[in-house]
Each structure stands twice: as structure tokens, then as C-alpha cells.
């Protein structure tokens, strides 16, 4: 029996809107992934600890508040400090195109903006999980 890919879907910061994250979480589950959803208003520390405890392959961050330039790199830093160097980190939400290169430099492998199909996200994870 092959081990299923485990994905942590997380909502960092004070962002209180999670409809998109829930849509993505359901699509990932329907595609055969194990999905752990953290709920709203998680700190970077809570997300990193949940990822470690749940032994995930992927962390999918969703943010609409505009704090992505601060929160996403902080989460990457904490994940790496915990030795989880093989975890694929992706992000999504309302993120300006101009901010995406810096997020990728910080360790976010891919950024999915509004309108991205869930199939695109699923295909990306399947192609990039070690």
C-alpha cells in the first residue's frame, strides 16, 4: 500500500476568510491526498508545529490579508529550523504578481493566485512531492 501525500492547509495571521482554503482542501482530499486544515488565525509557530506533528509532505498557505511578505518567509524559516527540508511549501491567495519572485526566493515553491484551478494545484503537488 502506497503512503498518501499529506498536506497541511494553513491560514496564517489575522485573515478571517477561509472559503478558498476550504475549497482547495476539499479538492485535495477528493484527489486522494490526506488533508489537515489548521483553521483560521494561526501563528507561524503553530503552523510549523502542526506540520512537524502531522509529518506532512506539503504545506499549503492561504492568505488574503496582505501579510504574505512577512508571514510566508517566517513559516519557511521555522519549517527549515525544525529540519523539514523536504516539505514542499506552496502559497495562494490575493498576492500581487510583483511579490511572487521574493516569495519564491524565500522558499515558497509556487504561488497560486485567484482563478487558479484546483486541478492545477493538484497537478503541481503530484509533480513536485519527493
TrEMBL record:
Keywords: Cobalamin, Cobalt, Isomerase, Metal-binding
Keyword Isomerase part of the UniProt annotation: yes
Boundaries of every B12-binding domain copy: 4-130
Cofactor: adenosylcob(III)alamin
Listed Gene3D superfamilies: Cobalamin-binding domain (3.40.50.280)
InterPro entries found in the cross-reference section: Acid_CoA_mut_C, Cobalamin-bd, Cobalamin-bd_sf
Example GO molecular function: metal ion binding
PANTHER family found in the cross-reference section: COENZYME B12-DEPENDENT MUTASE, METHYLMALONYL-COA MUTASE, MITOCHONDRIAL-RELATED
Protein's recorded name: Methylmalonyl-CoA mutase, C-terminal domain
Amino acid at each position: 500500500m502506497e503512503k498518501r501525500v499529506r498536506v497541511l492547509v494553513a491560514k496564517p495571521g489575522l485573515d478571517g476568510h477561509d472559503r478558498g482554503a476550504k475549497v482547495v482542501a476539499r479538492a485535495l482530499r477528493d484527489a486522494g491526498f490526506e488533508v489537515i486544515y489548521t483553521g483560521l488565525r494561526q501563528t507561524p509557530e503553530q503552523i510549523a508545529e502542526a506540520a512537524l506533528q502531522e509529518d506532512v509532505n506539503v504545506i499549503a498557505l492561504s492568505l488574503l490579508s496582505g501579510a504574505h511578505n512577512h508571514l510566508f518567509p517566517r513559516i519557511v524559516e521555522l519549517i527549515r529550523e525544525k529540519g523539514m527540508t523536504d516539505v514542499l511549501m506552496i502559497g495562494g491567495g490575493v498576492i500581487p504578481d510583483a511579490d511572487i519572485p521574493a516569495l519564491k526566493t524565500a522558499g515558497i515553491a509556487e504561488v497560486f493566485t485567484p482563478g487558479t484551478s484546483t486541478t492545477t494545484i493538484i497537478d503541481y503537488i503530484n509533480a513536485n512531492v519527493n
